Task: structure prediction
Amino acid sequence: MPATAPKKSELRASAGHRRAGRPRTATAAARIYAGLRAELVSLLRRPGDPILESEIALSYGVSRTPVREAILRLSDEGLVEIFPQSGILVSRIPLTALPEAIIIRRSLEDTTTRMATERASASQILNLRSILERQREADSAGDREAFHQADEAFHAAIADIAGHPGIWKLILQVKVHVDRFRRLTLPKQGRMAEVIAEHASILTAIELRDPAAAGSAMVRHLERLHADISATRHDNPEFFDQRD
Result:
């Protein structure tokens, strides 16, 4: 088993002590948090993998103090699990959380897409087309990471055009486990091409200034995630927490 993990109460106590007068430590913790979070969401660190504070501290050239603060934040998001006397593990994707997160995202993006359709300028539409082209290039190159980043940029741009970029920030918090799940769908043959086609339908409706059609196209695009859950769960059961 991994090395003994500190209790959450211990982590919180040390975090509070640091915030009193160690901004450099806080900055290091933020950097470690961002790096680890990216690795967890991209599945570079797989569900069930152990996380060793000592290794992370060594790789960042810091003490364990900022590492523990970063791990506490990740635990609060449900990305890692802390087991006192046992260790720290990358959490499995909670199946029960996925449908609710998808519903929330679908509702919010239906709204922002309709608003963006009414407000989009010619240059903003060109930007969306440019992002879509980046996705096509990533698909051709088989670059799933570049594809995912362009996918995020497409949805973020729509929220920005709608005049409510804060909605996308909220969605980012809600969909953290959905992102982990989506990474498992991208390797499927033809999946990236399907996403591109769905994005193209959204963009066409925006260009035609048809808010209802654009919103509906976005909803269909996001509802596809619901359909993918069963198959992905079957193909990768070890990545999911299947408890009710």
About this structure: The first helix runs from residue 8 to 19. The CA atoms of residues 57 and 64 lie 6 Å apart. DSSP finds eleven helices and five strands in the chain. The first strand starts at residue 50 and ends at 51.
